[in-house]
Amino acid sequence: MNKVQFLEFKKLLRKAEQESSLYKNKFKEASFVIEDVQSSEDISKIPFTTKADLRGAYPLNLQAVSDEQIVRIHSSSGTTGTPVIIPYTAQDLEDWANMMKRCMEVAGVIKTDRVQITPGYGLWTAGIGFQAGVEKLGAMAVPMGPGNTEKQLQMMMDLKSTTIIATSSYALLLAEEIRKRGLKENIHLTKAILGSERWGDKMRERIKEELGVELYDIYGLTEIYGPGISISCGCNSGLHYWDDYFYFEIIDSHTGENVKDGEFGELVITTLKKEGAPLIRYRTRDITRLITGECNCGLRYPRHAPIVGRTDDMIKIKGVNIYPGQIEDVLKTIDGTSSEYQIVLDRNDAKDSMLLRFEKQKGHDKASLELAVKKHFKTKIGIIINTQALGIGELPRSEKKTVRVVDNRY
Ligand code: ZN
């Protein structure tokens, strides 16, 4: 952490204690005093903020400025209970648009590009955040929103869209439709900015090949502005994040301790400039690592690795922790497998079993592929599983997020 960041951090702590009831209470309960933070090493003394804290602040207790300063709210999905409401000031929206503009620049988007935006608009932040960045840059936004593949393809051809923004599974679905209908000649895409999902190298290769585009991986979460807090560059060696806006830490999600430099763990984010709802040491539950050293692209912003999983979709089976990213790693080393897979967990007579279903490419033998994946899994991850090879397109696709784990054990 540099000196400027540290000063911003201290300023944030004081402001949060004065203005936010969440942090006022949190600091008091943890008997935390700001004066104890004398250097960046002391940051580990500050209590974490969790998703449960944000839910507990529903609807507007996260707000750390007066009502007249708030110009918009967004909400994160409430799939597991109370939603979280994030209030934004005009400056927050300006900052977010600036970050998104930077992302577009890293992806090489220029003023003459036409950017088809397929994430949703509304309470969930994605669509409108992309749009603000595209407009700030001066390119043309095509605000499609999600779904309606027919219309997406029509607009993509008629407007000669050059850039698509989508989840990786929706980009794959579009790529497959384009191939099926033989439309590739009429598509003018050169770049795809994909986010919000983990995606393995194989899926990446397929989207890249079938759409004929360069891919950029974008990251973000509603609690922290939305998408656009980091993006991969042309070097494909991690995602650059904006350290003038954020302080990133990686912790061991069991012990809460900071991990050693470069090790995998849970990403914890502090917002250095956010006004409406500043967050201090927010536990994202996303698993990644920080990458040290400079990137070949020349950007001075630091990097983190692509997200390999969520702390809560870590699967524990036969005493072994498995992240979905590891399964992608196994599949990508075996010739003839595709990027799509699904895991089915079962329990019989108190014994757990795992079935890995994956799609195979044409012309490869089903039985020998199943055996190869089984063997490789045993070698790399250490447990014996069952495998099932399916044809391309047999596993379910989604316009939103693909469900990869079916757990029938509980
Ligand atoms: Zn770079």
Describe the structure.
A hairpin with a 6-residue loop joins strand 8 and strand 9. The protein is built from ten helices and 21 strands. Helices cover 29% and strands 27% of the residues. It folds into two domains: 222 residues, 3-Layer(aba) Sandwich (Rossmann fold), CATH 3.40.50; 93 residues, GMP Synthetase, Chain A, domain 3 (2-Layer Sandwich). The radius of gyration is 22 Å and the shape is globular. The structure holds zinc ion. The site of zinc ion (ZN) has 6 residues, from loops.
CATH topology of the largest domain: Rossmann fold
| Amount of beta strand | 25-35%
The CATH class label of the largest domain is Alpha Beta
Would you identify the CATH architecture of the largest domain? 3-Layer(aba) Sandwich
* C-alpha termini separation: 44 Å
If you average the pLDDT, what whole number results?
A: 91
Main sheet characteristics: 9 strands, mixed
CATH H-level homologous superfamily name of the largest domain? ANL, N-terminal domain
Q: Strand order of the main beta sheet, please?
A: 4-3-5-6-7-8-9-14-13
What global shape is seen? globular
Computed over alpha carbons, the radius of gyration is 22 Å
Secondary structure class reads: alpha/beta
**How many domains?**
2
The small molecules bound here are:
zinc ion
Q: Low-confidence spans: pLDDT under 50, at least 5 residues?
A: none
Question: What labels would you give this structure?
Answer:
alpha/beta; Rossmann fold; 10 helices; binds zinc ion; 9-stranded mixed sheet; GMP Synthetase, Chain A, domain 3; 410 residues
